[in-house]
Amino acid sequence: MPDWVVILAVTFGYLGVSLAVGLRSGRGASRGTEGYVAGDRSLGFLVMYFIMGASIFSAFAFLGGPGWAYSRGAAAFYILSYGTVGLVPWYFFGPRIAALGRRFGYVTQAELFAHRFDSKALSGLLALVSIIAFVPYLTLQIKGAGYVFNIVTEGRIPIWAGAAIAYGVVLVYVLSSGVMGVAWTNTLQGIFMMVLAWTLGLYLPYKLYGGVGAMFEELAAQAPEMLSAPGLAGGGGAWSWGGYSSAIIVSTLGFSLWPHYFMKIYTARDVPTLKKTVVFYPTFQIFLIPILFIGFAGILKFPGVTPADAILPTILTSLDLPAVVIGLFCAGALAASMSTGDAILHAAGSVIVRDFYKPLVRPDLDDTAQTRLIRILIVIVGLVAYYFAVVSKLDLVLLLLLSYGFLAQLFPVLLAAFFWRRATGRGVLAGLSAGFVAVIACNIWPELQWRDIHPGVWGLLFNAPVLVAVSLMTRPMADDHVAQFVVD
Amino acid sequence: MGSLRVFSSRLANRDRRIYGAVAVYFGVVFAAMLWPIYPLFSRARPILFGLPFSLFYLAVLLLLSFAVLGGLYLWEARRGRLDPGHERDL
């Protein structure tokens, strides 16, 4: 049997199991939005752990992580760093958010903020930001899936077909099972990715250098600049400390506020489950370390691979490994792409309906109609992202860069919502707008970024003072309303 | 400015000190991964446990943070205050 047939057989085996798990998992959920979007607030620790871990580990971690380590050395450590503290705010804010969700029936992030600040405009603005962040991110995942198929079958399956197969499966289980489908497939995909990352991350340095320590000894002797942060910039020269540090700051602040993670707070069965998820998250995060080993393993033995993201498939195909192993890798990379893509797809439909359409256009929309509309929008968002991934030549990287800067702007809003009684809807809207404008300006004119500091940081410098100033200039919100949210 | 309250008024002083210490710990860890602290430790050698020192340092911070938050969880569990819900209707 030719290798590529074996590889495809393993890959399709994985896709079949994902589909079966995804379809089965939705059976117990209720039919309205509480069931479809928040899983009836019933998820236990195991699925919560994997839903968070696997949603975060995207195609970027699996292909981009080694690519960064390979081409930019220690610059890749920033990915490891921001996850160390990024989820910690959940431990302290999560229980309050979950309780408010239970009491007022929230299933999205914007519903909480729009209610706290009594502002429909805020709801619309947050929906817009979510979609700006989601579409390019999803596009990247779909591209990654098509790319993996294409490379391991040596071009026999074109990118458009590979992407369509993987995301066809995702679409079926997200439509049928909602968040439960996302949760249980992520559990399967998460276990799969962890095993594969540790196996490959330890095996490749062993095979190529005789061990991880031996590999780093050789690198320290021949290319020490790759092992000390901030590593190299995208273009090849040295990266700056300003760029490295501010990338960590912006990613850390935005981390817990990505709308598709934030929504998962509402799905937890109870507070101890939520807290345990945060406590154990580092055990998932640490598997970035073997992922980075893979990229480091390529530096001396496989110079000049472009694009850098192809380093892992390049090493694998050059090592003469059994076809089953390549097939497992292919399945693992698809798992990484799909476990992120499914969560985004599901969240995108929910956000458009709950945060935009219902509050601003059709307040009387009943629950059954909402769930139906969410499903329709999931299909539309999937098609749009697929179009950008395989048809359009338009590059969405700028949107993705913008979205990291945007999401960090929500951090002051989170603090104001729970700690500052005097914060008002207009204050928050004005602060966010100022922050967004600053982020956009810094992306358009990069020379504004003194010392290479991330646009998101400049956004915060405008956002927070404007939030405070405008809040103080506007009428305070009613005491009894605010008391439901703030720490007292 | 309006009142700015970080801890619930129902929280005992001793408990506030513990939560305060955890908050300070995570602030320090965050700072330790950034300029100007991380440059002091971001070196290729010595290689410890097979890792360059720059990566070993970050791995230690990650594991330490796991231990600290895990410790807080166990402490809360022992005191029966994992779920603040029984203190207020939230």
Index terms:
heterodimer, A: 488 residues, mainly alpha, 22 helices, B: 90 residues, 3 helices, 56% helix
Secondary-structure topology with pairs:
The complex is a heterodimer of chains A (488) and B (90).
Chain A lengths: L2 H23 L7 H6 L6 H12 L2 H14 L4 H10 L1 H17 L4 H8 L3 H33 L6 H51 L2 H11 L18 H15 L3 H4 L8 H15 L2 H14 L9 H8 L4 H39 L5 H25 L5 H12 L1 H10 L5 H20 L10 H19 L5 H4 L6
Chain B lengths: L12 H20 L5 H4 L11 H26 L12
Helix pairs in contact in B: 1-3
Give the distance, in angstroms, between the N- and C-terminal Cα atoms of chain B: 25 Å
What is the approximate shape of chain A?
globular
Give the proportion of residues in helices of chain B.
Answer: 55-70%
Largest interface: A-B, 56 and 47 residues
Put simply, the count of helices of chain A is 22
| SSE sequence of chain B, one letter per element | HHH
- What is the ordering of alpha helices and beta strands of chain A? HHHHHHHHHHHHHHHHHHHHHH
Helix residue percentage of chain A: over 70%
The biggest beta sheet of chain A reads:
none
Assembly state here? heterodimer
Radius of gyration of chain B: 18 Å
Q: How many E strands of chain B?
A: 0
The whole-number mean of residue pLDDT values of chain B reads 88
Q: How much beta of chain A, percentage-wise?
A: under 5%
Segments of chain B where pLDDT lies below 50 for 5+ residues? 86-90
Largest sheet of chain B, if any?
none
Number of continuous helical runs of chain B = 3
Low-confidence stretches of chain A: none
Task: Note the gap between the termini of chain A.
Answer: 69 Å
